[in-house]
Design goal:
By secondary structure, the chain is α/β, with parallel strands linked by helices. It folds into 2 domains: 131 residues, 3-Layer(aba) Sandwich (Rossmann fold), CATH 3.40.50.720; 164 residues, Dihydrodipicolinate Reductase, domain 2 (2-Layer Sandwich), CATH 3.30.360. It is built from 11 helices and 15 strands. The strands form 2 sheets. Strands 3-4-2-1-5-6-8-7 form an 8-stranded mixed sheet, sandwiched between helices. A 7-stranded mixed sheet has the order 10-11-9-12-15-14-13.
């Protein structure tokens, strides 16, 4: 059995990781750590619905050095459910010890160190590591993940945008890639467990608001991967919104097309890309996905419609932001990296 450690175990994503590893046939939770006020509480003290899923208690992160030593001793694969910059502290020494590292933050998602530093406003401490990491989205980078030790797991918004767009970036015939708009709505859990005015119930309930318009950090992450798929520079306009729901992301994407491009061709490309994928569903003609339809699952559902009058393809995708947009994709990456059945723990 692969011994799994989770640093950041008391966040929403950390809780989902515990749940998924609990039902994995080849892995078990071996060590949990987080910055907590009271050390050594059981995980169900933070997530009552995880009662009985692991005997491991949550250890306090008193110092990075002590936590690294603990993970080196007790684990084989470590999930870093941490904010950007924090993962760098742990990744390098754990990799040196031969561990498999899956970072759910942004520190190892970018091929370009300069793009990361520009987006996040910090200096990357391990540029060679990030250049050598594989982007963690198995449907797009499965072959590259096999046997690797480090992945930067795809962000939640990028997952909802890249999966529907990828087939059209790989084949640009009939596509106008200079006109891409992504309009996304996310549930409040996407803001994490920390307290904030925008995530306060009184603020978020029965309300919707755009935020970080034309400045969200996930935009350069999406553009880097779209450009790699297309083999040329790609830009998009991305507007995220906070929606009054606990979890889920709904992205509506507008893609310019040439005269003569048909909805049937769009559907053919999507089916060719995802017809055999276990976690991506292309909806039937005239059907469009809902966030409720994928809640607490690892599925991405995609609907498609051609707006022939305006020469735009409309793609609608939905995911659960905590599972398909984070913990589930991290487990799928671990499966791909270690040669397990990719669906293990996810169905």
């Amino acid at each position: 059995m692969v011994r799994v450690g989770i640093i950041g175990a008391t966040g929403y994503v950390g809780g989902e990781l515990v749940r998924l590893i609990h039902r994995h046939s080849q892995a078990e939770v071996a060590c949990l750590a987080a910055i907590v006020d009271t050390p050594d509480l059981p995980v169900d003290a933070y997530f009552p619905d995880l009662w009985g899923m692991t005997q491991e208690h949550v250890r306090a992160v008193e110092s990075a050095e002590a936590t690294i030593a603990l993970m080196k001793e007790r684990t084989d694969a470590i999930f870093l459910a941490l904010p950007h910059t924090a993962s760098q502290i742990y990744a390098a020494p754990l990799l040196e010890a031969g561990k498999t590292v899956l970072d759910l933050g942004a520190d190892f998602r970018f091929r370009s160190v300069e793009a990361y530093e520009d987006a996040y406003g910090v200096k990357h401490q391990y540029p060679d590591l990030t250049r050598g990491a594989v982007y963690g989205l198995p449907e797009l980078y499965r072959a590259q993940l096999k046997g690797r030790k480090l992945t930067g797991v795809a962000g939640c918004y990028p997952t909802s945008v890249l999966l529907p767009l990828a087939p059209f970036m790989r084949d640009l015939s009939g596509i106008r890639p200079d006109l891409i708009i992504a309009d996304s709505k996310s549930g409040v859990s996407g803001a994490g467990r920390g307290l904030s005015e925008t995530a306060h119930f009184v603020t978020a309930n029965e309300s919707m608001m755009a935020y970080k318009v034309a400045s969200h950090r996930h935009c350069p992450e999406m553009e880097e991967n779209l450009s790699a798929l297309a083999g040329k520079p790609i830009q998009l306009t991305f507007t995220p919104h906070l929606a009054p729901m606990d979890r889920g992301i709904h992205s509506t994407i507008y893609l310019g097309v040439e005269d003569g491009f048909t909805e049937a061709e769009a559907r053919r490309r999507l089916e060719a890309a995802y017809g055999s994928e276990p976690f991506v569903r292309v909806m039937a003609p005239g059907a469009y996905p809902s966030t409720k339809g994928v809640s607490r699952t690892h599925y991405c559902h995609i609907g498609v419609k051609l707006d022939a009058r305006n020469k735009r393809l409309v793609l609608c995708s939905v995911i659960d932001n905590l599972i398909r947009g984070a913990a589930g994709t991290a487990v799928q990456c671990m499966n791909a990296m270690m040669g397990f059945d990719e669906a293990d723990g996810l169905k």
